[in-house]
């Protein structure tokens, strides 16, 4: 199961998405993000995840253009920010993102956070973009179960993805089970908990056992759980190292050891208390 970087999962609308990609949160626009994207693509990555809030879509687009890899071989995700929620404003925000990226279509467009009393209307805009063929798939980010329930009871098109903070300290069991039951794929942001997990004794012990780095152990755990993952790095050697997780397999016992590290601890905001 999952033996190379370009292996895909099939989303609920039939679109195939790479199981692993590059995240660019907090990567400065300009040369840094351009080179990061180019390095990832050169080393076999085919999925790039950005957001309007990251303020680096222009550089991501330039990196894509300079990579030399045909557009149709890539999977590009961006997200609508909280201040752009609403039907017309979401449609406008999408066009701005598309123009900055220099693309004719997106592979995946996400609602970045579930802004109360607004995200349902925003979802209707995403459905229109999907039906108009401007995006191949639509989904959400940072949605808890009750947010997903609100979308599902009133949608024409079901989300394909819920991108959430997910790592061994935050296994999101309830959200993951709900998504699996409803054929919504879970995607992990901050899979390494901003580096905090790299010094976790259990992870270090398993890294020695499998002759891998602590980061590779965690990312392999993600992949074996069927969770799409998008680790961030701007250093080429780290981008390569993060992807070198397809030549080994964690035993069920070791998978369970990692899952047992859960303490429901976040590095980012809680969707239910986030100050929108």
Automatic annotation (TrEMBL):
Substrate binds at residue 112. Coiled coil: none annotated. It comes from the Bacteria. GO terms for molecular function: oxidoreductase activity, acting on the CH-OH group of donors, NAD or NADP as acceptor. The record marks 79 as: Lowers pKa of active site Tyr. SUPFAM superfamilies: NAD(P)-linked oxidoreductase. Residues 26-262 form the NADP-dependent oxidoreductase domain. The active site is at 54 (proton donor). Keywords: NADP, Oxidoreductase. Belongs to the aldo/keto reductase family. This is Glyoxal reductase. It comes from Planococcus rifietoensis.
């Amino acid at each position: 199961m999952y033996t190379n970087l370009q292996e895909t999962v099939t989303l609920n609308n039939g679109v195939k998405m790479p199981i692993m990609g590059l995240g660019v949160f907090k990567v400065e626009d300009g040369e840094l993000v351009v080179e990061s994207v180019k390095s990832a693509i050169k080393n076999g990555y085919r999925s790039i995840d950005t957001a309007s809030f990251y303020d680096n879509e222009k550089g991501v687009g330039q990196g894509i253009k300079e990579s030399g890899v045909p557009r149709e071989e890539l999977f590009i995700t961006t997200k609508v920010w909280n201040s752009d929620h609403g039907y017309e404003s979401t449609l406008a925000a999408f066009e701005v993102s598309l123009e900055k990226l220099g693309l004719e279509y997106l592979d995946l467009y996400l609602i970045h956070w579930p802004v109360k009393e607004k995200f349902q209307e925003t979802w209707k805009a995403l459905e229109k973009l999907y039906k108009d063929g401007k995006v191949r798939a639509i989904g959400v980010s940072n949605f808890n179960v009750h947010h997903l329930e609100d979308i599902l009871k009133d949608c024409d098109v079901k989300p394909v993805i819920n991108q959430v903070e997910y790592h061994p300290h935050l296994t999101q069991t309830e959200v993951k089970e709900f998504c699996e039951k409803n054929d919504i794929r879970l995607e992990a942001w901050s899979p390494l908990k901003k580096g905090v997990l790299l010094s976790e004794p259990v992870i270090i012990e398993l890294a020695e056992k499998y002759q891998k780095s602590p980061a590779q152990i965690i990312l392999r755990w993600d992949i074996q759980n069927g969770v799409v993952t998008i680790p961030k790095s701007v250093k080429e050697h780290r981008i390569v190292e993060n992807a070198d997780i397809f030549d080994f397999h964690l035993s069920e016992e070791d998978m369970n050891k990692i899952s047992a590290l859960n303490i429901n601890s976040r590095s980012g905001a809680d969707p239910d208390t986030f100050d929108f």
